[in-house]
Write a structure and sequence with these properties.
The chain has 386 residues and is α/β, with parallel strands linked by helices. Helix content is 51%, strand content 16%. It contains 9 helices and 8 strands. It has a 3-stranded parallel β-sheet, sandwiched between helices. Helix 7 (274-325) packs parallel to helix 9. The chain starts with a helix and ends with a strand.
Amino acid sequence: MNMVLQAAANAEAEGTLSAVVFVMAAGTKRNSLSIETIGTILKCSLPDAILENLLVAFSSAPTMDYANEAARVVPFDVLMKNRFNFDNPVFQGPLLKTNDPNRALYEMMWTATMTQMANIVNAVFRNKTTKAPLFREMLAMRMKIKTSLNDIRMNIANLQAAQRHIDDADASLAAAKTSQNQSKDFIKKETLKEIVKIPCTELNTLCGACQNLCHANCSLTEITSKGSSDFCGCAAFQNQSNCLRCKDRCSHTEHLHGRYRFETRETTVDKVLNELKLKYEAATQSVAAQGGHVTKSQQAKRLIDAAIAANVDQLRQCCSGIKKICQKFNIVAEMNVMLNQMIAEKRRIHNIKAANEAEAVIQSITRLIQEFSRTDGGSGPGKIRG
């Protein structure tokens, strides 16, 4: 059929297309489902404007009544003036011999056939040539339909890879955020204790080792040298060589007199846990990188979705365009094969999200097929028109 349409488009482009001639045998053996099927395909492929110029020549039809009866299996209307019949067994047998007893009959049938052939030629030239590029437009749109269907099929196969990249990137991003959250507390508050000297007026016995005020307001004469044995006479020693007020019983050699006291002060500082900080910094970098991967994967997926949507839209436009040229155009035959391939591609998808999206695309195309497969006037045999 594509060859027939292409030939018609070529004649149309040359400005010489005035008719389409459909030749079929009218014998009982050929009045079968195959003839009706071919006629249905022809009906759904010819522009409405050319149907008035459709000529049907019935071979093996000795009379016009015989041809009219055969015309009933043709699934579209055929004008009476566009029907032709001929019956010439010479075309189906060996060359006649000079002394053949049926030669005169065959010559008469030959003349009748050539007369009908001349009538067909006259009918062809009687019709006006078509000026609108109907066949070319139909062929171009049919090609776009096939291209769009093939692109959709390929993009359905790409959905799984795109969705898998998104899922992998999402999982990596989630893991990076978890690591970042677990290592974010790399700065700890720490309380430091510091012993400071607080000046005062009284004379105190102090321990230089443990920084303890052993005896406040000591009554001894001020001892100017540290570690003097005179400290044994201080109340903190009670005539012993080790201080009774020091927690570690420090020796008198660690003691001195001074006009100050010791005071413990607490200071809160931030302490950086370096190992945890390194993990946090690495996780932060990973969050940024994986976030970029998620964005890129989503963008790639959106491009596939947009391409599928554009192809579906182009399918609708082309089907609408063809319907304007050929109202009986039936898209089922054009699209069912590719639709089955899409269904097969979907069965190979293991990612649930991608499979659901592929199913949604398949359903949208199925609805499109159902919408445009409703041919006007049905698809049964044509009626006889005068």
